Amino acid sequence: MPRATDSFEALVDALARVGSSAVADATGASAVVHPEIAYLSGGRRFCGRALTVDADNSVTAVMAAIREAGPGDVLCVLGQDGAVIGEFLALECERRGLRALVIDGRVRDIAVLRGLDLPIFARGPVPYAAPHGSGGVVQEGVTLGGVAVQPGDWVIGDDDGIVCVPAGEVTDVLAKAEATLVSEARLRARMEAGELMFDILAEARDPGSRGA
Asked: Distance between CA 110 and CA 129 in Å, rounded?
C-alpha cells in the first residue's frame, strides 16, 4: 500500500508534467489566474496545495501563514498596495520547502528574489512594504486573479501561467488533461510524418472522410 506521501508526490509529478495549458483545457478559463499575476523569479514550473492568506494590506497575516507552511505548500496571498513578500520572508519560504509563492499583490527586494530557486508569481515589485497590523486571515477562501481558491486546492504554474483546481476535482481534471496530451502527441506524430494539420482535424470532425 503506497504511503500518503507517495500518493501526494505522484499527483504533484503528474500535474506538473501535464502543465497549466492541458489543465486549463480540462477545467475551462474560469480556473485560470489572470496573467497580470506573472512570473517574476525562481523556477517556472510548480505544483502544490494552496495555503491561503487574505493579507488585508498587512504583512502580519503572511508571517503567520509562513509559520504554518511546509513542503508541498503554495503560499497564495491576496495583498493590496504594499509588498507582502520581501527578501527574508522569501528566504524563509524557500527554507521551509514551499513549492511556490502566488501573490495577488506586490513583492520587493526583487534582485534577491531573482536569485532564488523558489518560483514567485506576483503583480510586480514595489519598494515599500505592507505594514504590520492586526488584519488579515489565514486558511480561508481567497480570490486570486479572479479565481476562487480554497485551502488545499491544487495550484499548477509554468511559463503559460497559473491554474487552480478544487481539491475534490483534481483526479478527474488530471485524467482529462492526460487524455489531451495523448491526443496532441498523436496529432504531432502525424504532422511530423507529413500530414497536414487541417486535414487531420477535418478527419477528426468527420471520421468517414479518411481516404476520401
From this structure: 12
